[in-house]
Every structure is written in C-alpha cells, then in structure tokens.
Amino acid sequence: MNILFLCTGNSCRSLISEAVFNHLAPAGWKATSAGSQPTGRLNARAVQLLAQKGIPTQGYHSKSWLDLPATPDVVVTVCASAAGETCPAYLGPVLRTHWGVDDPSHVQGTEEEITAAFEQAYAILRARIESFLALPLDELAQDHARFKAALDDIGRLLPA
Length: 160
Hints:
By secondary structure, the chain is α/β, with parallel strands linked by helices. It has helices at 13-24, 44-52, 111-134, 137-140, 144-157; strands at 2-7, 30-35, 74-77, 95-98. Helix 1 (13-24) links the parallel strand 1 and strand 2. The relative contact order is 0.19. InterPro entries: Ptyr_pPase (IPR023485), Ptyr_pPase_sf (IPR036196).
C-alpha cells in the first residue's frame, strides 16, 4: 500500500513523516512525500534530526505531487491549517486524512527553542505513525470507511 504525506513545501514535516514511516513500516507498505508547491530542497534541520534518530534520508528530495512514482492509496496532509497555512487538497480518488502539525521551520527564537520545535514535530508525527502501524492494517485495507475513521482519530486524538 502506498501512503503519501502531503504538505505545501515538502521540505520538513512531510519529509519527516515519509522517512519515519518507511523506517518503521512492514513489508508492502511504502510512503512518499510531496508538496503542492515544493521548495525544491529539504530542510537541513529536518534532515539532521532524522540522522540523529538513526533514520535514513538518502534518496529523498522535495518534489511535486505531480511527480509521484505511484498513485497513493492513502493521503495524509500534515500542514497545520490552524496556524494559517494553506493545506493542499489532493484531488485523486484516494483515502484522505489530516494530521496537522505546526511547521518547526517557521519557529524563530533561540537555538534551544528551534530545536525543541523540531523535536516536538518529530515526536507528534512519530507517535501518529506508530499508531497508524499498530492498526490491523490488512483488515482495514479492505474497509475504507473504518480505515479512514481510524486515521482521522489518530490525527484528532493524538496531541498536535
């Protein structure tokens, strides 16, 4: 099953999500990330954070949702519309859910405050992905209504 983590710039939160998901996912489940308006580069702090966590990012790059290698089965938007961001709407016939997370790359402050924002975004996304992967995936893959409800619950009930 192909999972797409989608955000506007595809440089930070969607990258973290893609890398964490692929690091933890069972065989046959693959994530990619993309943006509706990709920046064309990965956020250096996000790449550094993933390296510190032992999660590889080799081969990942900022890309448009128009350049996907496969049609996704599930699209997870990770932009934080509550923070005033415009969250892209993927228009393909797929299961969609929203897991808004504030963009740590927009945080201004001390080095410690910026680092803490990246750690918080990572912790939220990892907890949500772990919850996703703890679901009865084979069973839910056959029942899109239940699968969507479970994914929506993850985004709504786990802290943001």
